[in-house]
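re: ur question from the group chat, yeah i did fold both. here u go
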Amino acid sequence: MKIDPQNPADLSAQIASAIRDAIVSGALIVDQRLPSEAELSEQFEVSRPTVREALKRLAAQSLIRTQRGATGGAFVNRISFEEAYSQQITTSTLLLSMNAVSFETACEARYALERACAGLSAKRRTADHLATMRAEIHRQSQPGLTDEAFCASDVAFHRALVDGAGNPVMSYQLAGAVEAMQPLMNMITFSARDRARIVAMHGDIADAMTQQDAAAVEAGLTALEHETQQLAIHAFAARSAAKQGSAT
């Protein structure tokens, strides 16, 4: 592992990148103990605080874990897809909020990604996935359910559909779409939507999943996308009208 002292990039970032590359390539394997801070400091010809900062970067990415004691140190961590979900969701949420992605663009991406797993989900879904979807539909039908709770249930419903594909790579990639895009879209459209209509559409999708009808699942998601886009148009129009009214 080497770094370039002439590179303008932060030295701790270079060290973290070098160690990360070694982990990805297999030069460092899961549960292997990294050299000590002193050894890394000597190897990279930098100060120990610089090495310490590099290790903090790696720990923040869950690439390494630290243990105290005589047999302690920094060890290569095994990352699970589930543990990486939160980072994917956080990154997706930040990208959407910081780059002013339009509602239409986010909605298009979110449903295109979910439709991509419709076939596998219809084929592989388990009784547990179906039970979760039915439970969320029942929850969404309850009178007095808050908008926040309805949104959370909506996310859980779609997450069960995605996880029904039985493909952890797809679930990871879709984590940002379902758990970052969906709540943002829900909060924009919640005031304009007809809950009973959304619940009915969710029911159609769950029925198609039960019957393992991939085409019907995809059609149901397409219909839901169209409904969501129309709700957004009405919601934005209402907000615009309200602003104009308050300005006069």
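okk and heres the other one u asked abt
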Amino acid sequence: MFGLFKKKDKVEAPAETAVETHVADEALAGPVAEPIAEPADDGVNHAALAKIEEDLKRAETPEFVPPSSMGGGTPSGIPGFDYSPVDPDEEFKATAGKPLAEGAAVASEDDVVEALREVYDPEIPVNIYDLGLIYGLSILEKGDIHIDMSLTAPGCPVAGEMPGMVARAVEGVEGTGEIEVTLVWEPQWTPERMSEDAKLALGMG
């Protein structure tokens, strides 16, 4: 079971928006998520596609609707993950890393993207970058990195885990400073955001 965050008290933001900030747990060995069922003989991963279809339906309502996969094993119903949904009406961030040493070389965007491709949605065998969940990536002059990311549905039972996984993965890239990952919901994710490789992996090509 991942222990990814040390929860801090909510802090009131100036614009009357509660910002919940989480710090990636340094004890985490790495952002690992086992993909669900392998593609069937027809080359289509029916389980993953069913999960995407279910998420799109769940995204139509602001309340959390338990996915069919829940029902035992762990509080979230997803092996290795705690139940940690987030309120889509409140800003949610995860942070990691520390200021980069003066004069140190700053990581390239390619290196950061490669790290993002090591993080997987726990129920879809496609990395979050090719899945189209990274909405924004900024690498600042001193190596600090700001990332906007989304999920396939706001009601995801492990939504609170994912930003920390991303922050921890990017923290491991040489030449990065402080990492801030913000969970956003606009625009709503759709399968059209997936790369061609992702669609091919799911048998959608």
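fwiw on the second one: The mean pLDDT is 79. The chain has one domain: 18-24+41-201. idk if thats what u expected
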